[in-house]
Amino acid sequence: MEIIRLLFTFIVLCVVQALVLNRVNLFGCATPLLYIYFIMSFRRGYPKWGILLWSFALGLCVDVFSNTPGVAASSATFLGLIQPYVFELFVQRDSPDDMKPAIRSLGMARYVYYTVICVFAFCLVFFSVEAFSFFNWLQWAKNIGGSMLLTSILIIAIDNVGKK
């Protein structure tokens, strides 16, 4: 049952990113990268190799539909690599092994910190690989900051709606 839910979420986020969100570019620097919500929502205790496979597959699908060869795949794989360790920073030791990162399980403050750290790490890798140089570092910094802010707000809003 969990695999069906994961597959459904995977497909929905991939399609929404490819058809809608890739066309949004606020102020020339903020693009919502909502598909990383899928990677961030893996429960505690999920096999690390499974997170890496799902992350790479999601990044590859987004790359295919967005014409960004390898940028999303490398960034999503990196986020999949660090997600279990970042999540452990905000989980209490006596928490259940199948705990999912959510506002209701972590609390608002911890979830916001978790989201900001994950989104920042993803955006840093994504825009560094996309630019492949620091020639225009001001635009690079604007892209990271704007996309991080917009993506974090969307993820927190979606998780808050799902809470109810």
Tell me what the structure shows.
The protein is mainly α and 164 residues long. Helices cover 71% and strands 0% of the residues. It contains seven helices and no strands. Helix 4 runs antiparallel to helix 6 and helix 6 runs antiparallel to helix 7. The longest helix is centred in the C-terminal third of the chain and has 27 residues.
Assess the beta-strand content as a share of residues: under 5%
Largest sheet: none
**Terminal Cα span:** 22 Å
Structural class: mainly alpha
If helices are DSSP runs of H or I spanning 4 or more residues, what is the number of helices?
7
Helix-strand layout with pairing:
Elements: H1 2-19, H2 36-40, H3 48-66, H4 71-89, H5 103-106, H6 108-131, H7 137-163
Quick description:
This protein has 164 residues and is mainly alpha-helical. It has 7 helices and no strands.
